[in-house]
Amino acid sequence: MNTATLTSYPWWAYLQLMRPANIITAWADIMAGFAASGYFVLNNQFNIIPLLWLLLATTGLYGGGIVFNDVFDAQLDAKERPERPIPSGRASRNGATLLGIMLLSVGVAAAAQVSWLSATVAIAIASFALLYDAFGKHHSILGPINMGVCRGGNLLLGASILPMVLREYWFLALIPIVYIAAITILSRGEVHGAKLNTALVALSLILIVIAGLLGLGLLTNYRLLTALPFVVVFAARVLFPFIQAVRKPTPEQIRIAVKAGVLSLIVLDSTIAAGFAGFFYGLLVLSLLLISIKLAQVFAVT
């Protein structure tokens, strides 16, 4: 069954609202946080059930958050992006709202199967996602930080399987916070283009993220040499399109940079995962990139 046939089904529009390619990047957050927790080592057992619950949780939380993004933007999209599911009439606003509520509820409920702490983190992520969708995105400074907190919280959700580790490594959330802030700042030029200063700020934040990844080598249980190949791949994937966006901050070039930035979240997470859990676990996380890229050929990521 080809894509043209699938798009004729009513449910396809609601699937598009969820941005499946982006959800895979959220899985990578969980797996990176899980690696940082050292669960298999500290817990002295191989039990992936908690990880599976957390993957389901982030599917609901991210999917619900991104659906509500389109719900709140329906009127604006009718002018700027009429091809999107809601303004095009392929999905109703009420139907999307119901879908968003269901997904967020599933996210919190799945996290609760792991621990009360995981459920608390999930509720916080859902709250910040709705805050961003309704208000945060309209603020030039608070908006990018708000969105970054959602992704940073997602990484901590993966680490929440062991509460003591979460308290020790809370600062890991700062890396995706800064990274997502860079992408969010740049993404505001997807329709009308961006100012040179805005693109420069985004590029500077990317450089800070790369420095932060290298700085993790100061931790006693983080193997920088193991993670270094992943750092190189990450830098190669994001620096070029962001530099191009600085040189030519047009809507088209910015969309290319933003898409590369979103998909490279997986490479960022694989870098963290490899340093904490080894090269092959890092490759496992990195393999999600192939799935995300394939889905991005069918579904929009922005």
What is this structure, in a nutshell?
It is a multi-pass membrane protein. This protein is mainly α. 76% of the residues lie in helices and 0% in strands.
Sequence-ordered SSE layout with sheet pairings:
Layout: H1 3-6, H2 10-17, H3 20-37, H4 39-42, H5 49-72, H6 74-80, H7 93-112, H8 116-134, H9 142-159, H10 163-168, H11 174-187, H12 196-215, H13 224-247, H14 251-263, H15 265-277, H16 279-286, H17 288-296
Low-confidence stretches at least 5 residues in length (pLDDT < 50)? none
Helix residue percentage: over 70%
In CATH, the architecture is: Orthogonal Bundle
- The tally of domains stands at 1
Annotation field: number of helices: 17
Question: How far is the N terminus from the C terminus?
Answer: 25 Å
Q: How would you name the oligomeric state of the polypeptide chains in this document?
A: single chain
Beta-strand proportion: under 5%
| Major β-sheet profile | none
Tell me what you see in this structure.
- The mean pLDDT is 88.
- The chain has helices at 3-6, 10-17, 20-37, 39-42, 49-72, 74-80, 93-112, 116-134, 142-159, 163-168, 174-187, 196-215, 224-247, 251-263, 265-277, 279-286, 288-296.
- Helix 3 (20-37) crosses helix 5 (49-72) and helix 11 (174-187) runs antiparallel to helix 12 (196-215).
- It has 17 helices and no strands.
Primary descriptors:
0% strand, 302 residues, single chain, UbiA_prenyltransferase, UbiA-like protein EboC, Tetracycline Repressor, domain 2, mainly alpha, Prenyltransferase_related, transferase activity, transferring alkyl or aryl (other than methyl) groups
